[in-house]
Specification:
The chain is an alpha/beta fold and 351 residues long. The protein is built from ten helices and 15 strands. The protein has a five-stranded mixed sheet with strand order 5-4-3-6-10. Strands 13-12-11-14-15 form a five-stranded mixed sheet, sandwiched between helices.
Length: 351
């Protein structure tokens, strides 16, 4: 159980009347009712959900394989929320907010999702679709990697007293992207694409990327990239690739070198772009665990040996492995919902 990542909720002495807001309808707050928040994280291969209370305790989790296409994804998210909402109702709780993390370019103000290529979504307003089933509940849509970044930042309790340095969450999943946390909040950039480093075309093999470019880092430093370079009949390809390389298979060593070089390049790009105090390694490939971290660290050390500048960055000291035993993406999505709920009620109280 994850405890205490949400600070105490705004208080009220009486029930509030729902109001229209720029991002939806403000829910009622009933005296004596515990508040429930649902966080959903949907990726290219799985969908995870959590139910939390107002104090930040994770009360329930769910996980299923994810679907493809706008309608199928929206229906699956609604079903996940329904399951978790039912648990909350059984505990006498009121659904006060929903947060959803999903791949692609996200307009956090409108809830529009575009270019979620690994889910087969070219564009849809996800918030409007979900709101049809949960009227009166504030719904926040966030990029899945940004949500995972906030979840990791919360669960790992990064940024202690006096530490305001940015934190980067480098997601080596089906795709490759980075979430950035600054001052405890997700940094989106001007158009919402901050951290989309997977589509920087710097990879020498010039493989075709789903985004339309060639040579994107994602074509090697991601789950889909590993599957392309080292296909397997079943299971996750990276552990099999690392085992073959350890046994001395020349083609495996060459393939693994390509993958690790791409990952190191991603780390260097992030370090030189935002200079984070910590770089958390997450996503499906991170389930390989410490062997992957050690391989990345060795590659970074080799780079540092030939460059005093890279050596001065002390990159290996900044690396952390994301907690693999917790649904940090869904936790982060729920945290986004809690933050939005607090803003709405604080705004109402001032009025």
């Amino acid at each position: 159980m994850t405890q205490g990542f949400v600070s105490s909720q705004p208080s009220t002495d009486e029930a509030q009347t729902p109001q229209e807001t720029p991002s939806g309808i403000m829910p009622t707050m009933r005296p004596g009712k515990r508040q429930a928040f649902v966080g959903v994280d949907i990726g290219g291969t799985k969908i995870e959900g959590v139910l939390i209370d107002e104090s930040g305790d994770v009360l329930e989790t769910r996980r299923h394989d994810s679907n493809q296409g706008s309608s199928a994804v929206a229906e699956q998210i609604v079903a996940m929320i329904d399951q978790l909402h039912a648990v909350g109702l059984g505990l006498g709780m009121m659904l006060a907010g929903i947060g959803i993390g999903i791949p692609g370019k996200i307009d956090v103000e409108t809830g529009e999702v575009s270019n979620a290529v690994n889910l087969g979504i070219s564009g849809m307003n996800l918030r409007a679709r979900i709101a049809q089933s949960f009227r009166g509940v504030p719904i926040c849509i966030e990029n899945d990697v940004n949500a995972a970044a906030l979840g990791a930042w919360t669960v790992l309790a990064l940024n202690g007293p006096g530490d305001a340095s940015p934190v980067a969450f480098l997601n080596f999943g089906t795709g490759l992207a980075c979430g950035i946390i600054s001052d405890g909040q997700v940094y989106h950039g001007a158009t919402g694409v901050a951290g989309e480093i997977g589509h920087i075309p710097t990879e020498v093999h010039q493989y075709q990327c789903k985004c339309g470019q060639r040579g994107c880092l994602e074509t090697v430093a991601s789950g889909s990239g590993v599957d392309r370079i080292w296909p397997t009949a079943s299971g996750y390809a990276l552990p099999a690739l690392m085992r073959a390389a350890e046994l001395g298979e020349a083609s495996a060593r060459e393939a693994l070198s390509t993958v690790i070089h791409g990952m190191s390049m991603a780390i260097i790009i992030i370090a030189l772009s935002i200079d984070p105090g910590k770089i958390v390694i997450g996503g499906g490939l991170a389930k390989t665990g410490q062997p992957l971290i050690h391989a990345i660290e060795e590659d970074l050390r080799q780079r540092a040996e030939s460059s005093s500048f890279i050596d001065s960055l002390d990159l290996t000291r900044r690396l952390l492995l994301a907690p693999m035993d917790q649904p940090i993406g869904a936790i982060g999505a729920a945290a986004v919902a809690v933050a939005r709920w607090k803003i709405l009620f604080n705004s109402q109280e001032k009025d």
